[in-house]
Design goal:
Elements (H helix, E strand, L loop, with lengths): L5 H105 L5 H7 L3 H88 L21 H11 L3 H12 L6 E2 L7 E2 L6 H4 L14 H13 L3 H4 L4 H4 L3
Antiparallel strand pairs: 1-2
Helix pairs in contact: 1-3, 2-3, 4-5, 4-7
Length: 332
């Protein structure tokens, strides 16, 4: 009698077990998915921060190229203006020469200057004849040569004007291209900055959720590190840099220990932009950004990294530069 009821009871128990199993798996799976999302979002924010720093440096370079192109254009324009003045002067000289020659011809006619025939009939010897004819020829040739010289000068200046105008058009096109490059980079910078802000907000939200479910990590103990291989006791340097920039020295110290353990020469694995270096694990791209007044120093210069980091934190770059460790290091 009990056997007909065995199947329904077994099916009910099986369904109950399956429901409970799904519920347990769902509870376990949610934190894992959120943890993966937080890690990926932090890496995304770090990559975006590096891209923003790189774009900032590229904008500085593009602006410098635009400035150089503008200066070159001004030089060409000054040459064009000067050449136009020279061309006007040359044309005035040609016109003046023509007027003087015309006046000279009228004067010779009015004064009945001896003609070639007059010379032929007015000389007393063959030698005198040759001398007079040579004089007339030299006067005529000299005046003609003067006009030809002025005309050649005018043509040379005119040809130079054409060349300079072509140079001016080329320089104007280059300036326009440089300006377009700057605007394009600025637009890309704005786009990446917006993405970075959104990613940072997501990181803060996910980190807050994770922090509510976990126990804060213990404060690291500051070790006494030997002054070899670029390592050392960085605490005095950190205190001075933090005080100069009005940021937390303790937070900077915790951030350093979380990133490198206090080693100025350590190289860590990176993401899209390659390896990370030194006390605060900068990528080369971020370290060389225009934001950093210490970028000319070696990336393994511990004191330079400390000073740059204090400045970066004071300027609000902390969450984007160190998305995985900043919130923990500077917790209240």
């Amino acid at each position: 009698m009990s056997e007909p009821n065995a199947t329904p009871i077994g099916s009910g128990m099986l369904r109950l077990v399956l429901v409970l199993l799904v519920a347990v798996v769902g509870v376990v799976a949610v934190p894992v998915a959120r943890s993966v999302t937080l890690a990926s979002e932090r890496e995304k924010a770090r990559q975006l921060a590096a891209e923003v720093a790189e774009l900032d440096a590229r904008i500085d370079q593009a602006v410098a190229r635009y400035a150089r192109a503008t200066e070159a254009l001004e030089v060409v324009r000054a040459s064009v203006a000067e050449n136009r003045r020279e061309l006007r002067d040359a044309r005035r000289r040609v016109e003046l020469a023509r007027e003087l020659l015309a006046e000279h011809a009228r004067s010779m006619y009015k004064q009945s200057t001896p003609t070639t025939v007059d010379v032929l009939f007015g000389v007393s010897s063959f030698s005198e004849l040759v001398r007079q004819l040579g004089l007339l020829q030299r006067v005529g040739d000299g005046e003609a040569d003067y006009v030809r010289t002025l005309r050649q000068s005018e043509r040379a200046v005119s040809e130079r004007s054409l060349a300079l105008e072509a140079d001016e058009a080329t320089a104007e096109r280059l300036v326009a291209k440089r300006a377009a490059d700057v605007e394009k980079l600025r637009a890309l910078f704005g786009e990446r900055s917006e993405l970075l802000a959104a990613s940072e907000a997501s990181v803060r939200e996910l980190a807050a959720e994770a922090a509510a479910k976990t126990t804060p990590a213990p404060t690291p103990v500051r070790p006494a590190v030997a002054d070899t291989s670029g390592d050392g006791d960085w605490w005095p340097v950190i205190k001075r840099a933090a005080a100069a920039n009005e940021v937390s020295a303790e937070g900077m110290y915790r951030l350093m220990m979380a990133e490198s353990g206090g080693s100025a020469t350590i190289v860590g694995p990176g993401g899209y932009h390659g390896l990370y270096h030194g006390l605060y694990q900068y990528s080369l791209t971020t370290w060389r950004g225009s934001w950093n007044p210490y970028r000319s120093a070696s990336i393994y210069d511990g004191e330079a990294q400390i000073k740059a980091t204090a400045l970066a934190i004071a300027r609000g770059f902390g969450p984007s530069f160190w998305p995985t460790t900043y919130d923990w290091a500077f917790r209240d």
